[in-house]
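MODEL INPUT / OUTPUT PAIR
PAIR INDEX: 1
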Amino acid sequence: MAASGLLSVPLCSQYRLLRLRSNSIHTNLSRVSSSFLVKDNASTSSSINLLTFIASQKRKTFVVRIAETDAEEGESSFLGENSAEFDLYKQKISSWAYFTGVLGVVLYLLNVFWIDNQTGFGKSFVDAVSSFSDSPEVAMFLLTLIFAIVHSGLASLRNKGEKLIGERAFRVLFAGISLPLAVSTIVYFINHRYDGVQLWQLQSVPWLHELLWLTNFISFFFLYPSTFNLLEVAAVDKPKMHLWETGIIRITRHPQMVGQVMWCIAHTMWIGNSVAIAASFGLITHHLFGVWNGDRRLAERHGEAFETVKQRTSILPFAAILEGRQKLPQDYYKEFLRLPYLSITLITLGIYIAHPFMRAASAGLHW
């Protein structure tokens, strides 16, 4: 029998084995405290990180493996979750079949009630927003603003909403309102991206396309940490407010903001007009607000654990690493060799290949 746990405590320099004998294999593991305070001869404290807990039935002995590191390095225990961790053997075919069914139903309802001009409300919504001004820049900004208010507003109400109607029901409500607004904003941008005032034209600059393509490609690894658990996105699994700490989070605590800024810079430089600037201004402002709002919500949900993670991560990319608050493991690259990141790679390439089809489909809606 084996069990594992994480606890935060003081540290020395090498691994040790600590044997705790008991009269029964069923001894309550809670007797082992979640934290230890050890004083050395110099009366300095060190932190101990409990990695594994193994119970031997024959010997009725618990063997605790203790990982210890130098207290002077100032590292504390791992409190957040291991992002993008995916165990294929723990997956259930029934869950993914259910996910496929839910996705199909959502796309069907989205098409009938929003996208299809004959049955949906999407065109009427876009026309209503556009009626405020003949300027495509104003319409673009208003669409982005409406989406931002609804998306961030519902996110801010998540704690109360989940207590009121449950995690899955709130996720359905959140997606049911946010998704149509996101589709409207994206379609309008595609259809009107070359309207407005042309401010610069750099598309003939050698290697610019390749540079901006690479920037855009990398941005998607920051943009979509939600793919860490697609089953939660579709409410197949109960949605949770995760406190990630590895992978892309080591670089920046707010990868979606960084990814959005990268995406906006790449597209605005390539398009070079006032509509692109209006869209980018709205999106970046929304995500900058999300930095503050996201930290506030995580602090409310996770308390001191978030404050600890906050101290060893940063908003600006690589800042915590350069300041020594975040220490990358030698095999850091392995934190990206996981299925969710592979999925992001394939989806990003797929979206790029599908650009002509997206433009054609958007043009056919006349939004």
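PAIR INDEX: 2
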Amino acid sequence: MSTAPRELDASLLTITPTLSPKTIPETSTLKFGHTFTDHMLMCKWTQAGGWEAPEIKAYGPLALDPASTVLHYSSTLFEGMKAYKDKNGVPLLFRPDMNCARLNRSAARLAFPTVEPATLIELISKLVAQDEQWIPTAPGCSLYIRPTMIGTRATLGVGPSDEMLLFVIMSPVGPYYSTGYKPVSLLCSTKDVRAWPGGTGALKLGSNYSGGVVPQLEAAKLGYQQILWLLGDELTEVGMMNAFVVIQLDEDTVELCTPPLGDIILPGVTRDSVLALCRSHADPLTRPRFAGLPDNLVVSERRIFMSEIAERSANGTLLEMFGTGTAAVVSAVERIGYQGRDVPLGEIESEWSVKVQV
């Protein structure tokens, strides 16, 4: 009589501490994603047996068969999440339930097994606790956490992988961009498309990202830091971030808008957080309200077109544009390369800015 494949079980976790702990670098020297903590979490899955016992062990290389499906057909997904310390030094995960839900949506699209979110959060919490001393406490810094699933079936035929590896690595990080938290410049891309209707743009699949490298390199040659991905004339995403635009609708009303979710737009955790906070501010029946935000704020999820952005920049009703994501958090935009010229942002005088006489 056959038994059902085993579910992922946090009670079976084994921890083998590293015998060679690394020196934790100074926060000021951190480059995003270049330094990794002492340990990683790993767990194998097979279609026949289900999940094996998870283990936390020393960070190190993976052993993969050259025929592994991940190496040939990009059968891989990942998540990006962060841990911080509160004022009392207690480690905190930021909205991990949303990352786990998105991970499961990506897994289902690749015919990977899904996991119980509470179990995965428990395992990640154990890993964070093991390397708790690696969480930086300087402003703007955090511990970046990268859960990853890869297909490891060692055959060349295209099909679902009946073997899979789940692993989690962690990296102490500062600002995502080398320029720190300064505004970034964007180049509109109409020749290259990041995502399209019916595709996988709303999922965290590795194959969604590698295709954007060459367009980004081309943008860099022209003096821009990132790509503003368009579908026709329609805004989709800012590099690897969700896009937000701030518009002066009339004398008293400001609109914060972002493209609606679907099969093109990634449902970002930071995106959802920004929308939730701003909607709380905009609702007169709820609290808190946030200093610095306009009293009459309209929050919209709607289609946004680059032609509208250019027109509003010209007539002075475009107040701001920014991108949001786990890695960059919130990144302001200073200018957009569009149709051979720059559309400026962030240079419009506002009552929010009060000049100081020196």
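PAIR 2 NOTE: The radius of gyration is 22 Å.
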